[in-house]
């Protein structure tokens, strides 16, 4: 049985993903809801770490996603924060898709762009359902890297009324570069804050996307009532804060591990009752989006491999329709 393998380079994947924000948000929602319905297989992510090196890691995310077009595969993503000092991206990734009936590989593609966009799409989807102001005009970003750049892009698709952005990064040069890039690309008023507290004080829709490995935000008292925090980097918030907020996650079992802020809160409290629900329970109508509109809501997504599969399968379909990429007929 002969089966072709499609190879997609980074610039080809980028061409396909460009301008598809709303379609990708819909794909993420469908994947979340399929996972919630039990139509997936999702082993825990496997972390490859290096001796005496707490920062760098490579993560394997295998997954199966059922539904109308079943898919199986794995994302292999490296996070090396020191790359930024060399002028290269912190994260790089590949995604392999396999035929779920034969196991044969059907696609191998650059995955960092898919990974960044699925992360941003999940944050924007959460904001769409959780944030109380559908006409939001201002957003706060802590961390001025690729993930928050994409998060801003996707938030603008959900909240086209956004006009102002307040940003903070521990590296002022990164913040200044981010400010210039987003001002030019999106035509927004981008302001650099001197502290994280200033971002929390001035905005009520906030995305945290840092490389922090330990909690560093100890106070949310300056946040306005009804603030929504998109905690995509998972380890920014002191676990003491978690207990008193409304916590929505992508998957309870996955996010309560690996020393995330929620995992640390669970260790301290001896339970995880502070997690209210999975996001898919809200999007499918099972659970109210925001039972207490005055409370600060935190969305903490561990980052599920089913999202990478959903986007990669869509990218593969688009590539085949548009004759993009290289097809190998005798790979195996």
How would you sum up this structure in a few lines?
Helix content is 36%, strand content 25%. It is α/β, with parallel strands linked by helices and 332 residues long.
Provide the fold topology.
Layout: E1 5-8, H1 10-17, H2 21-36, E2 40-41, E3 46-50, E4 53-65, E5 71-79, E6 91-98, E7 105-110, H3 112-130, E8 138-142, H4 146-158, E9 164-168, H5 172-186, E10 189-192, H6 196-202, E11 205-208, E12 228-231, H7 239-242, E13 246-249, H8 252-255, H9 261-269, E14 275-278, H10 279-283, E15 297-300, H11 305-322, E16 326-328
Helix pairs in contact: 1-3, 2-3, 2-11, 3-4, 3-11
- The N- and C-terminal alpha carbons lie at a distance of 10 Å
The main β sheet shows up as: 8 strands, mixed
Please tell me the total number of domains. 2
- What is Rg? 19 Å
In CATH, the homologous superfamily of the largest domain goes by the name NAD(P)-binding Rossmann-like Domain
CATH topology descriptor of the largest domain: Rossmann fold
Per DSSP, what share of the residues sits in E-state strands of 2 or more residues?
Answer: 25-35%
Oligomer class: single chain
- Secondary structure category: alpha/beta
């Amino acid at each position: 049985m002969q089966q072709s393998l499609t190879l997609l380079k980074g610039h080809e994947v980028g061409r396909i993903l460009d301008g598809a924000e709303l379609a990708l948000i819909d794909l993420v929602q469908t994947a979340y809801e399929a996972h919630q319905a039990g139509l997936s297989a999702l082993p825990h992510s496997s972390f490859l770490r290096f001796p005496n090196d707490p920062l760098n890691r490579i993560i394997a995310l295998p997954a199966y996603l059922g539904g109308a077009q079943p898919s199986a595969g794995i994302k292999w993503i490296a996070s090396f924060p020191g790359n930024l000092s060399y002028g290269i991206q912190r994260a790089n990734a590949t995604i392999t898709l396999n035929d779920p009936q034969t196991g044969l590989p059907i696609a191998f593609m650059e995955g960092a762009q898919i990974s960044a966009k699925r992360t941003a799409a999940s944050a924007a989807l959460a904001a769409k359902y959780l944030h109380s102001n559908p006409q939001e005009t201002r957003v706060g970003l802590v961390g001025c890297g690729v993930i928050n750049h994409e998060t801003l892009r996707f938030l603008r698709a959900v909240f086209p009324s956004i006009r102002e952005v307040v940003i903070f990064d521990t590296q002022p040069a990164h913040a200044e570069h981010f400010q210039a890039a987003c001002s030019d690309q999106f035509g927004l008023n981008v302001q650099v804050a001197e502290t994280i507290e200033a971002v929390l004080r001035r905005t009520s829709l906030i995305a945290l996307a840092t490389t922090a490995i330990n909690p560093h935000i100890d106070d949310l008292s300056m946040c306005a009532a009804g603030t929504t925090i998109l905690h995509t980097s998972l380890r920014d918030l002191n676990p003491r804060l978690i207990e008193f907020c409304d916590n929505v996650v992508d998957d309870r079992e996955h996010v309560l591990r690996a020393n995330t802020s929620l995992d640390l809160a669970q260790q301290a409290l001896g339970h995880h009752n502070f997690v209210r629900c999975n996001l898919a329970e809200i999007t499918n109508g099972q659970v109210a989006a925001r039972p207490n509109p005055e409370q600060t809501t935190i969305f903490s997504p561990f980052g599920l491999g089913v999202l990478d599969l959903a986007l990669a399968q869509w990218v593969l379909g688009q590539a085949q329709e548009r004759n993009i990429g290289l097809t190998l007929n005798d790979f195996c």
